[in-house]
Amino acid sequence: MSPLTEIRVERLLGRLLVDAQGTAFGRIAEVEAEPRGDAYVVTAVLVGPEGRPARTLAFLHQLPTLRAVGIGRKPRVRRVPWSWLDLTDPAHPRLREKVSE
Amino acid sequence: MRIGSEVLDQQAVDADGRLMGKVDGVALRLDGDTAEISAVLLGGATMLWRISPRLARWAERRRWTTATTRIAWSKVRKIGVDVKVDVDAERTPAFRWERWVRDRIIGRIPGA
Amino acid sequence: MGKLLEVALGIVTGIGGFLEAGSLATAAQAGAGFGFQLVWAIVLGSICIAFLTEMAGRLAAVSHHTMPDAMRERFGLRFFLVPLITVGLVSFLVLASEIGGVSLALQFATGVPARWWALPVAVALWLLLWKGTFSVVEKGASLLGLVTLTFVVAAFRLGPEPREVLAGILPSLPSHEPAKYWFTAVSILGASVSPYLFYFYSAGAVEDGWDESYLMVNRLTAGLGMTFGGCVAVAALVCAAVVLQPRGIGVDQYDQVALLLSTPLGRAGFWLFVASLGIACAGAALQIALQIAYLTAQGFGWPWSENLYPRQAARFSLVYTLALPLAALLILAGMDVLKLTIMSMALTALSLPVTVVPLLVLMNDPLYLGDHTNGWISNAAVLVVSAIACLVALVAIPLQILGGS
C-alpha cells in the first residue's frame, strides 16, 4: 500500500482512537498545530471521552445553570503527541506501542 | 492553534473582502511522522461529507455537486474573526452557484 | 449624544415592532377566555425575549458574529442543520401568518376576501426588501408600528380594575378549561419569544457595525424596548378581557379582535385596528423573510446584507424572494389565518430549546464573548423559561389537536 500523503482534519475529528491493544482510548476532539517558519506543523491531538453518555454530559457541562445544579460532567481531555498516532488507516486511528497516561 | 475550532467552519473571506463560504475541510500533508497544513477546502463534496458521508459519495457519483474549492495554505492570510484568503472568489467553484443565481435569476429582475 | 439617540430609537423600535399577528391573536384569546389570568405569560415571555435579545446583541458586538454565523462555526455544519431546518420551517409558518394578517387587514378595509390579497401583499413586501436598505426596513416598519399604541389608549379607556390586572401578573391555575389555558399560555410564550426577533436583532447589530462600546446601548435597547413592547401586548389582553370575556365572546375570527378597539374607540377604533393589524404584520413579515435569508446565508457563508444590491448577494436575495410568495400560497390556499397563527406560536414554543441551548453555550464561551460572558441570571432565566415553554407545549399541543380547537 502506498504511503498516504494527505489526511483531512474534518475526517479525523470524532473518530474513535484505539490503543495498540485495540482498546478504546477516546474520541479525537481537536487537532493542534504550531507555526514553524512558513508552515503550520501539527503537534498533537486532543482526545475526549468516547461514549455517548460521557459526551452528552460534557455538552451539558457547558451550561452554567445546569452545572450549578450538578448536571453535566467536565470531560477528561488528554493531549496525544502527533507522533504517537498510527494513521495507516485514517478511518481507524491507533496509538503506537509506547503509550502512557 | 486548534484547527477544529479556529479554522474549520470559519468564514472564508476573499481578497476583495467578499464572503466566500465556510471552511468545510482542512487538508494535512503527511511526510513520515510529521504533518503540516496544506490547504483549506470549501464546498462541493467536502461540505456534503460533513453532513453525511453517504450523501457525499452519492452526489459525487451522480455529478450533482460542484467541485470543492481548494485554497493552498500559503494563500491564507489571517486566522482571526475570519479566514482571509488571497484569492478572487469569483473565479472559484465556491461562487459557482452565486454566479448562476445572479446571472439566471436575480440579475434578470429589474432593480437588482 | 449619538448613542443616546440610538437608545431612544432602539426602544421606540422595540415598542413599535413588538405586536404582530401572533402576540395580538394570543393576547386576544387569552383575555377573552381567561380574563386577566394569563398576564403572567406575557410578562414571562417579555422578560425572556429581553434577555435573549440582549444576548444576541452582545454576541454581535463582542464577537462580530451573528447568531447563525457563530452557531455554524462553533458547532459544525451537521449540528447547525437542526436549528436551520427547525427555525426555518417554523419561521415560514409564522411568515404565512403575518402575510395572512396583512391580507385580513385589507379585507376589513376593502371587503375583498383575504386570500386574494396574499400574493399582492407578498409582492409588495418583496419590493420593499428588494429596494430598501436595512435601516429603512427595520426602523420604518417599527416606527409605523407605533400605531399599535392604540391598544394602550383603548385599555385605559376601558378602565379595568388595576388590582385585577396586577393580580394576573402572578401565575395561577385555571378555574376552567385547563387544556385550553395551558395551550394559550404556551402560544403566548411562543409569540413573545419568537426566534426571528433575536436572530433579526443580531443581524441588525452586525449590519449597523456594533462593537464593544455599544454594550450599554444594547442592554437598554433590549431591556426597555422589549419590556415596553410587552406592555402593548398586555394592553391588548386587557382590552379583550374587558370587551369580550364578560359577554362570553370567544376569539375564533379576527372580526372579534377588531372589537378590542372598536368598542372603546368607535369607528376610529375600527380603522386604527385595521392600520395596526396591517402595519404590525407587514413589519413582522419583512423581518421574518429577512431572517430566514440571514439564517441560510450566514450558516453557509454566502454574501449577505440588506444593504447590498441584490445582485451582490444573489443567493441571499433568492431566499427571501422565494420565501414570501411561497408563504403567501398558504393563505391563498385558504388556510385559516387565526388557527395558523396560534398553532405556529405554539410550535415556536415547542422548538425553543433548539435555538436557546446552542445560544447559551455560545454566550458562556470566552472564545466568543471574552470578558462578557453571561451572568447567572441571564443563563437561568432563559434556560428555565425555554424549558417550561417546551415541556408545556409538549403536552398542550397534542391535547389541543386531539380536543379540536
What does this protein structure show overall?
The complex is a heterotrimer of chains A (101), B (112) and C (405). With 101 residues, chain A is an alpha+beta fold. In chain A, 18% of the residues lie in helices and 37% in strands. Chain A is built from three helices and seven strands. Chain A has helices spanning 9-12, 52-60, 64-68, and strands at residues 6-8, 16-18, 24-36, 39-48, 78-81, 85-86, 94-95. In chain A, strand 6 and strand 7 (94-95) form a beta hairpin. The radius of gyration of chain A is 16 Å and the shape is globular. Chain B contains four helices and six strands, in the order H-E-E-E-H-H-E-E-E-H. Chain B has helices at 3-6, 44-51, 53-61, 96-104; strands at residues 11-13, 19-31, 34-42, 69-72, 76-79, 83-85. A six-stranded mixed sheet of chain B has the order 4-3-2-1-6-5. In chain B, a hairpin with a 2-residue loop joins strand 2 (19-31) and strand 3. In chain B, helix 2 packs antiparallel against helix 3. The model of chain C has no long low-confidence stretch (mean pLDDT 92). Helix content of chain C is 80%, strand content 0%. Chains in contact: A-B, A-C, B-C. The B-C interface holds B 5, 8-12, 18-22, 24, 42, 47, 50-52, 81, 97-99, 101-102, 105-107, 109, 111-112 and C 63-65, 69, 72-74, 76-78, 81, 130-131, 300-304, 309-311, 314-315, 317-318, 321, 367. Strand 1 (6-8) of chain A pairs antiparallel with strand 2 of chain B.
The largest beta-sheet of chain B arranges its strands as 4-3-2-1-6-5
Overall helicity of chain B: 25-40%
Helix count of chain A equals 3
On the 0-100 scale, what is the average pLDDT of chain B? 90
The termini of chain A sit apart by 32 Å
Order of helices and strands of chain A: EHEEEHHEEE
Task: Report how far the terminal alpha carbons of chain B are from each other.
Answer: 41 Å
Quaternary structure annotation:
heterotrimer
Structural class of chain A, please? alpha+beta
The backbone outline of chain A, from C-alpha atoms, is globular
Which strand order does the major sheet of chain A show? 2-3-4-5
Helical content band of chain A: 10-25%
Strand content of chain A: 35-45%
Radius of gyration of chain B: 15 Å
Helix and strand element order of chain B: HEEEHHEEEH
Radius of gyration of chain A: 16 Å
Largest sheet of chain B, in brief, is: 6 strands, mixed
Uncertain residue ranges of chain A: none
